[in-house]
Amino acid sequence: MANDLIASMVLAIWLYLLAARGGFWLARQRDDDGPAWAGAADGSWPAVAVIVPARDEAACVAETIASLIRQNYSGLLHVILVDDQSRDGTALVAREAAAALGAADRLTVVPGRALPAGWTGKLWAQQQGVELAETLPLKPDYVLFTDADIVYEPDVLTSLVARAQTGGLVLTSLMVKLRCESFAERLFIPAFIFFFQMLYPFAWVNDPRRATAAAAGGCMLVRRDVLREAGGMAAIKSALIDDCALGKNLKAFGPIWLGLTERVHSIRAYPAVADIRRMVARTAYAQLRYSPLLLAATVVGLALTYLAPVALTFFADGLAQYLGLVTWLMMAFAFKPTLRLYRLSALWGLALPATAAVYMAFTLDSAYQHARGRGGMWKGRAQANVSQSQANVSESNVSELR
After folding, report:
1. What mean pLDDT is reported for the chain?
2. SS3 of 374, please?
């Protein structure tokens, strides 16, 4: 009887997720159906400043800078790279990439200032980029926040601006396509995208009538005047999940849009499970607002939603076993559109419970790292609870974390 009750609960959860959670699993919010826009009445396009925060990104930044300079955008475009106290020659690599394209004048490199109390590193770097953008001879209409490992196809900026202009959007964001080549990436990256869509259904994010708000930090086009009106980066200066915090802040000022893309790629590699663990553990506990109660509820929820169907399939009998198997197959079916986006076999869907179990372990590790004072660790900075401390780890620890 108890197994039948659990099986019924699990089935009800997945019926809700498939039927009433904004169709998140269909992965239909895409940038390939973007609206056309021919520019203003005089044919002009808005000026755009691209802000790239970079800390020890010499391995990736050249491709990023080159892809931005190669944009076939008709308006004024200027790239600002904020070198966040890198130790690997990031600034020099960026300058050489721009010079190689004969576009050294279209890139400004800002030496990052020391991190003040109360700020996370990325947001402080972005703030310095915004400050410079405000001083440009022609102030930009839009600011594009992107990361130093993101590569754009040449028409992406035109498409982003066109969507923003036609929709009156204050924030237009793309969930960039992450690298998915190693075994660890194939096991965890599509699931990461699936879980993100479940947490923030893109259709709800894009609906001005709903409070759900989110963004994807790798690619966020923001109206500069609205950003200033919303308090700028200072309004979210201590946020670890800075993109979603920015999305929430800006949605109070106008419509936002978030979609999937195959035209913007991250080239950052996650070759091993440990690399994925560090990525997830950096922010997972912050997502739970550092609450032990929310952590416990999350563990129970993940176990019930993802692990119970498998346990029922193998260890129950009768109706409970049947419902467990049906729910497991529903789960795999729901995962299929995301797997298709990443060109992976639908059979990976059967492994989703195992992947969820490992993500559960990563979340627990995130809470553990926070308890050790190493929460939000990124390239030598422990950024959780930044208002209380700005812990830096030694060079030996930095090497260990990479």
Report:
1. 91
2. coil
pLDDT recorded at residue 42: 84
Calpha distance 215→31 (Å, rounded): 14
Quick one: angle between helices 352-371 and 318-341, nearest 10?
A: 80
Query: Residue 394, class by beta-carbon neighbours within 10 Å (0-12 exposed, 13-18 middle, 19+ buried)?
Result: exposed
User: Contact at 8 Å (CB) between 53 and 122?
Assistant: yes
The crossing angle, in degrees rounded to 10, of helices 183-199 and 273-281 is: 20
Binning pLDDT at 50, 70 and 90, where does residue 401 land? very low
Give the tokens for residue 291.
């609450």
Amino acid at residue number 310: V
Residue whose entry in the numeric block shows the structure tokens 């993940």: 302
Q: Which amino acid is at 107?
A: L
Structure token digits, residue 162: 């066109």
CB 64 within 8 A of CB 151: yes
Torsion angle of the four alpha carbons 315, 316, 318, 324, in this order, in degrees rounded to the nearest 10: -90
Give me the residue label for tokens 């992450």. Answer: 178
Nearest residue to 6 via CA among 356, 361, 324: 324
User: Is the predicted pLDDT of residue 11 greater than 70, yes or no?
Assistant: yes
